[in-house]
Amino acid sequence: MADPIPKYLQKNVALLYEQFKTGDFTFQDAVTTLKKDVRYTGQILSHLGKAGWISIRNDKLDQRKKIYRVNKFDDIISAFEKDQG
């Protein structure tokens, strides 16, 4: 389930989706795509993860690193519709 997010986060998730679709990406990939500094990118990814718009998991080779993935918009929209109905 995904929670509604502010417009500035919608713009960022749209950029990530445009670049990676529903494929995996790293933190550094997100920094490059969003063209934001490291701290702000970390906050963006954290908010998107907590809201359910992206999935976050640990890297199998290095547990300190995270792997991100934009959740399918169909699943997010279905969750909204289910919540409203």
Topology overview:
Elements: H1 7-20, E1 24-26, H2 27-34, H3 38-51, E2 54-58, E3 66-70, H4 73-84
Helix pairs in contact: 2-3
Overview of the molecule:
By secondary structure, the chain is of the alpha+beta class. The protein has a single domain (7-84), classed as Arc Repressor Mutant, subunit A (Orthogonal Bundle). It contains 4 helices and 3 strands, in the order αβααββα. It has helices at 7-20, 27-34, 38-51, 73-84, and strands at residues 24-26, 54-58, 66-70. A hairpin with a 7-residue loop joins β2 and β3. α2 (27-34) packs across α3 (38-51).
What is the compact description of this entry?
This protein is an alpha+beta fold.
Features:
85 residues; alpha+beta; 4 helices; 3 strands; 56% helix; globular
How many helical stretches?
4
If you consult CATH, what is the topology? Arc Repressor Mutant, subunit A
Quaternary state, please?
Answer: single chain
What is the CATH top level name?
A: Mainly Alpha
Number of separate domains:
1
Report the portion of residues in β strands.
Answer: 15-25%
CATH superfamily: Winged helix-like DNA-binding domain superfamily/Winged helix DNA-binding domain
Q: What is the 3D shape? A: globular
- Structural category is alpha+beta
